[in-house]
Specification:
By secondary structure, the protein is mostly helical. The protein has two domains: 3-69; 84-116, no CATH class. 54% of the residues lie in helices and 7% in strands. It has helices at residues 9-34, 39-52, 56-69, 102-111, and strands at 84-85, 94-95, 98-99, 115-116. It has a two-stranded parallel ribbon. Strands 2-3 form a two-stranded antiparallel sheet.
């Protein structure tokens, strides 16, 4: 798949690492709020790392990076026009108490100006 997009192996590894750091930042933000990374959060992080093909050292480094970055949140850009989004995996979030399904997520993305791709 990455070859079809013209991505080198090192570019894919860098993207995986950045994604893992982003997930770790999200988990670390919750951990700062409640004081701990729960067993469930730890299992989720390990699964993400495994699916991305990165080792435990990379996960530890991502958590360290995340811990340093917590407290300096960033906001999504106000204009999402032209940005691309790709939804993967199972949806587990809600919006105003209602579960977000793939069609709802796609509708929200398009409504915000994003382009989405079906993979």
């Amino acid at each position: 798949m990455s070859a079809a997009w013209g991505l080198s192996r090192s570019a894919v590894r860098a993207a995986h690492h950045r994604y893992l750091v982003a997930v770790a930042v999200a988990v670390a933000g919750v951990a700062v709020a409640d004081g701990t990374v729960t067993d469930r959060e730890g299992v989720d992080l390990e699964l993400v790392a495994q699916l991305l093909g990165v080792g435990s050292d990379d996960l530890d480094a991502a958590l360290d990076t995340a811990a340093r970055g917590v407290g300096a949140p960033t906001r999504a850009p106000k204009d999402l026009t032209g940005l691309t989004v790709c939804f993967t995996g199972a949806f587990t979030s809600t919006l105003e108490g209602v579960p977000i399904t793939r069609p709802v997520a796609e509708h929200l993305a398009v409504g915000a100006g994003c382009a989405w791709r079906r993979t």
